[in-house]
Design goal:
The chain is α/β, with parallel strands linked by helices. The chain is 22% helix and 21% strand. The relative contact order is 0.09. Bound molecules: guanosine-5'-diphosphate and zinc ion (ZN).
Amino acid sequence: MPRCHGTPTCPTGIHGCYTLEGMPKPRKFRAELRKNRSSRRRSGNLTRAVAADPEHGSDLAASERISGKGDLTRKRTVIIHDDRPVGGDGLSVEPIAGSTWRGQVMHVHGLESVVRAPDGRMVRCTTRRLLRTLFTEQRHPVAAGDWVQIRTDADGGVIHSIEPRRNSLCRASRGRRHVIVANVDQTVIVGSAALPDLKPGLIDRLLVAAESAGIRPIICINKVDLVDASKLVPLAGVYARMGYTTVLCSAVTGIGIARLRHELAGRVTAIVGQSGVGKSSLLNTLDPNLTLPVAEVSRDNEKGRHTTTTARLIPHALGGSFVDTPGVRQFQLWELVRAEVPAAFRDLRPLANLCRFPDCSHTHEQDCAVKHAVADGLLDTRRWESCCHLASSSTGDPDAGTAPTHDEEYE
Ligand code: GDP
Ligand code: ZN
């Protein structure tokens, strides 16, 4: 694991700053002192005063500091208590005095965040300037889903600290990390039994993305009213055997909805899946208070170049929230890294350890345990093909994101 350099701009900062014993240590950081907080250094226009009365200059020497202050005095030392877990993320700065409350960020809009208070109120908050100064490696220090400490003053709420993140969906944005949403408990991968046809390759792709992000996936096959449900059993069985919660449902007949309700209660759930599979219909059925537009949305509309990356948490009646954002929905923001693909295939992963070559691609190598397992009927052929396809179409560079696939089955 790369070691953190211990600075706010450390490229490995996502791993936390750890000592050899694995214990977090506080980091010291020199932060710029805000200009409007420092007192005025001169009482008037010194040049004019001295020009008018040269004698005056000698008096000033005792009372005025004529030389500029050194760089040091314009900064202050801040200690960052970086107690985030390995692989986690988040920022917590020096403890705050005074009364604060804890809330979850629903939405970030520019410099303003909408935070949900414990009583359900939505409070508009700004972010403490220090957090913005410290965490310049991120496009914005606060993300939807963050748990934050708020202090309310005359102007409204101010975010004073951000709790360590359990997980996050990120993308690279002009050399900086853009956290789209944090602390997602699970993701529901929605496919439809028909109209549009089920795409198992796409489910596999989304499973890899969820596994790589450390987010629990739930597989949901909607519109089962349109087909003979028994035809879905073999496919659902493959996923269920791997330990994935797999729900066959219909927003029209209500089948499977009680099971989904049980799974979503009290959790933050990202809803993903291609356009038209019935995501909005399902959400509206799960919480009748929601009135999300249901339509046959053109793929071009939703997958356009200008897909919004701003995530929004939508609180629902089951005591949790949905993350329902075009960029997350259409998984444009779910990056796949080649090296992580086979490890995210739960059924293939244990077999890969038995291959002769540690970097086996499971395609042409001799003594490939994965290929043997496929030949012996121990591993689903389609899953093996899926893994090879996703590995070959994803990037080797963790920061570059996924190379676009032009394969219908995986889009
Ligand atoms: P989204 O793009 O994934 O949000 O899909 P929508 O919720 O907008 O639904 C797309 C279309 O599928 C609409 O015409 C819905 O009425 C229809 N639909 C949604 N769920 C079901 C279902 O369970 N069964 C059937 N037969 N149609 C459904
Ligand atoms: Zn192999």
